[in-house]
Write a structure and sequence with these properties.
Layout (H helix, E strand, L loop, with lengths): L4 E5 L4 H12 L3 E6 L16 E5 L8 H5 L4 E4 L13 H21 L3 E5 L14 E2 L13 H20 L3 E7 L1 E3 L9 H10 L5 E3 L2 E2 L1 E3 H13 L7 E4 L5 E2 H11 L10 E3 L1 H8 L6 H6 L5 E2 L2 H7 L6 H14 L6
Parallel strand pairs: 1-2, 1-4, 2-3, 4-5, 5-7, 6-15, 7-12, 8-11, 9-14
Antiparallel strand pairs: 10-13
Protein name: Dihydroflavonol-4-reductase
InterPro entries: Epimerase_deHydtase, NAD(P)-bd_dom_sf, NAD(P)_dehydrat-like
Family: Belongs to the NAD(P)-dependent epimerase/dehydratase family. Dihydroflavonol-4-reductase subfamily.
């Protein structure tokens, strides 16, 4: 048991909900910052009576002093993630950047020891390198031809690092997860788990040839905890990826082996790179695949393993546990 208080923003999301549960299991006191008190925590019907709730919005300075009062650590998960591209990319970029800076400023004033900022692999590996190898030294080019969400993650993370360099503490550690899968907490389906649901319901009979990293949400939270506590994590970023990159087609094969009764629903065909590029002109859903150009990236998790002793679950486990939870919650017809 510990008396330390951790502030979690974005607890209505998949990672934030798992984060609150893990912190409570570890004996921490938890405070949640939410735009509306009734929003609750992902996976719970209401707010756990062991959790304090403060109303605070990333677009306003109001109440952030109350949110960080007495807090030792902050996990800042809140950031816009729309299911469809915005008409104006500043709708994503401005709140992502300004929200991170607002949280850092409040944490600095309150004497918070360390902020763990979940960024994204979108800030690392969406400027294609010829050798296809990516680690924490890589950055996506924010002025390149990338989707608005990816640009928002680059801009927000770079702004956070610059803010700490210019103004000093709190200590900052950044986690850059690849595609996050694993047990679904409630009916609100994330973008990644939505891919598994689409594969199991026949919603993607043909898929683009696109390879991406996979990580289990429970391992993402475990990496947050290690990054919060380890002295060597201060001032560092860590990629969260379970293992070798996979594709939507390969993911379908994993699901077909795990749930044979769904085998006829998973995709049997991949689009060619040329078809992806042509389709991306009119279909925003194909833009990622077009940007990556069919490359099979080699994404390193060596730093997290070496520095923090992190040991993620296998890729297949993250995918099959996602499917099992979707079925258990009735989010995929049996």
């Amino acid at each position: 048991m510990t008396d330390d208080m951790v502030l979690v923003t974005g607890a209505t999301g998949q990672v934030g909900g798992h984060a609150v549960a893990r912190l409570l299991d570890e004996g921490y006191r938890v405070r949640v910052a939410a735009r509306r008190p009734e929003q609750g925590i992902a996976g719970q019907a209401g707010v756990d009576d062991r959790v304090e709730v403060v109303t605070a919005d990333l677009s306003s300075d109001d109440n952030w002093d109350k949110a960080v009062d007495g807090v030792r650590y902050v996990w800042h998960h809140a950031s816009p993630f729309p299911l469809t591209p915005p008409a104006n990319e500043d709708e994503l970029i401005v709140p992502a950047r300004d929200g991170a800076l607002r949280v850092l400023a409040a944490a600095r004033t309150a004497g918070v020891e360390r902020v763990v900022l979940p960024s994204s692999y979108a800030a690392v590996g969406y400027t294609v390198k010829p050798d296809g190898h990516y680690d924490e030294s890589d950055w996506t080019d924010a002025v390149g031809d990338i989707p608005a969400y990816h640009r928002s993650k680059v801009v927000a993370e770079r702004a956070a690092w610059e803010d700490v360099r210019e103004h000093g503490g709190p200590e900052l550690t950044v986690i850059n997860p690849t595609g996050i899968f694993g047990p679904q907490l409630g009916p609100r389906v994330s973008a990644s788990t939505g891919l598994v649901r689409a594969l199991l319901t026949g919603g993607m009979p043909v898929v683009p040839r696109m390879y991406f990293g996979v990580v289990d949400v429970r391992d993402v939270v475990d990496l947050h905890l290690r990054a919060m506590l380890h002295p060597a994590a201060a001032g560092e970023r860590f990629i969260a990826v379970s293992g070798a990159a996979t594709s939507l087609y390969e993911m379908g094969r994993v699901l077909a082996r795990h749930l044979p009764r769904f085998a006829d629903r998973v995709p049997a065909t991949e689009l060619t790179d040329e078809q992806v590029r042509e389709g991306a002109r009119s279909d925003p859903a194909l833009r990622d695949a077009a940007v990556l150009g069919g490359q099979v990236p080699v994404i390193s998790n060596a730093k997290a393993r070496r520095v923090l002793g992190w040991q993620p679950r296998p890729v297949e486990t993250a995918i099959t546990d996602t499917a099992d939870s979707l079925l258990a919650l009735g989010l995929v017809p049996a």
